[in-house]
Structures are given as structure tokens and as C-alpha cells.
Amino acid sequence: MNAPTTFELDRDAMTGPTPVDLEITVRDERFNRNTTPRRWWAGEPFGTAWHNALSATFPRGEAFFIEAVKAHRDGAPPKLAAEIRAFVKQEINHTREHIAFNKLAEDHGYDIKAIDKRVEEMLNLTKGRPEILNLAATMALEHYTAMMAHEFLANPKHFAKADPEVRDMWRWHSVEEVEHKGVAYDVWNHATRDWTPLKRWKVRSLMMLIVTGRFFKNRWEDSMNLLAQDGITGWKARWGLFKYLTVSPGVVRRIFPAWLAYFKPGFHPWDHDDRKLINLYEGEFEAALMPAE
């Protein structure tokens, strides 16, 4: 029987299916500077709570992603170096817009400071650990954002009845998450180019399992907290959120195959080229396009 190391557990560090003609474009859009309904997701609390909980993590989370990627940019090939710069600019804009969105949520009476505090405490635990592990965590979380972004763009049902301005923000964010979904992964391949394929595969797979457990545990608790602030508790809150995530529109159920693909030997985010989703919505943002450089 062949030894496991004979399998293509990860592609060569300097190759991969990232499209050679990929252009990462910075779209300098602004949203939610005025008002939105309290229950902006179709007037119901469960989608509102889930997305408010997600948004509350983004300002600190995306700052962490930026630093994790920048820490390993030395010696990157020119194309990857340019993609890192564009990635950073996109993430800075995402942070700005989610800060604005989070402020509106607070203006409606939601206390999201506990979520921000939890993220701060978790990120403090990463200080002093090897930077390559921060990159591995970033790579796993970027896969989560890319999976959800694909689903939000491919399935209009997710935001069909949402407040139009909030819907536009999430779709804009999703377009850019799809566009830069391979950057952290390519930086990982660059940073671990001296590792064996088996070691790269083991570390990224283990990190995805750790990230998955924490992601769903924390987002569930955060959403329950926000639902309680809406007066919804107990079985009604748990069943309503579970149904939203797994039945209709069922984002967690729908992204499961893409999550499972992460563990495939030789996986790369651009194994599935979904740039058609970017093109589908690009015209709406044309006036805000900025050069990536």
C-alpha cells in the first residue's frame, strides 16, 4: 500500500488554480448612514439576529485577517503581493461599513458590545503564538466568508425581503469576499513552501475543525443573546434560529459541501471559479470602482 505522503495533499507552494487573469477590485461603497428597520431581515428576528451577530465580529476580525496575511508577505511573487495589497484595502472598507451598520443596530437598542468584547478576548489569546497559526485561522475563516458569500449571491432568497440598503451592503461585501477568497490560501502556500504537503494538509485541516467549533458555538450564543434582547427566548429562539440556518433559507445546510471540500487533498478555494457571480452584480457598483494598486 502506498504511503500517505505519496498523495497530492496540497499543491506546490507556488502553483494553484487561482485564475491568472483574476483582478481584485476595490469598490469604495458606503451604506447604512441613515436608518434601517430594527428587524431588517424580512421583518423577522432570526435572520436579523444571525447577521447582526456576524457583523459585530467583523471590525476586529478583519483587522486580525489583515495582520495575519501581511505578516507573511515578504518574498511573495509580484502577482500575490499585488493581491495582498488589494485584499487589505477591501478588508479596510468592509470594516468601515460594518462599523456603520453596527452603530445602527445599537441605535435600535441592540447591545452588541458583549460580542465585540468576546472577539477581543479571543484575539488576545492569539498574541504570542506562532504567526503561521494566525494565518491558518485566517485561511479557515476566509473560507467561511467565501462560502457564505457565494450562497448569498447565488441564492437571492437569502436577502429577497431584506431592507434594500442592508441587502446591498451584504451583496457588496459578498462580491469582494468571493473575489479575494484565494489570497489567504495562496499566502499560506507561500509561507509554508518549505513544509511537506502532509504537514500543510494536517495543520490546515485541524485548524478548520477548531475554527468550525468555535465559530458556530460563539455565533449561536451571540444570536441567542440578541434574540433575548428582542424578547425571544427558550425553545422558540432555538428552533427559530435552527430553522433559519438549516431549513429556509438554510445557509448552513447549503454551504456544507463547500466546507467538506476544504479537507480534500489538493484543495484550493479557486477549484470552483464562481466569478460569474461577481459579473452578475458588478454593474451595480461600477461608479465606485477603484484601482487595486
Automatic annotation (TrEMBL):
The keyword Transmembrane helix is assigned to this record: no
Q: Per its UniProt record, what InterPro entries does this chain match?
A: UCP07580 (IPR016516)
The superkingdom listed in its UniProt entry is Bacteria
EC numbers, comma separated? 3.-.-.-
Per UniProt, the keywords (alphabetical) are: Hydrolase
An example molecular function term from Gene Ontology annotations: hydrolase activity
Quote the protein name from its UniProt record: Metal-dependent hydrolase
Q: Which organism is it from?
A: Altererythrobacter arenosus
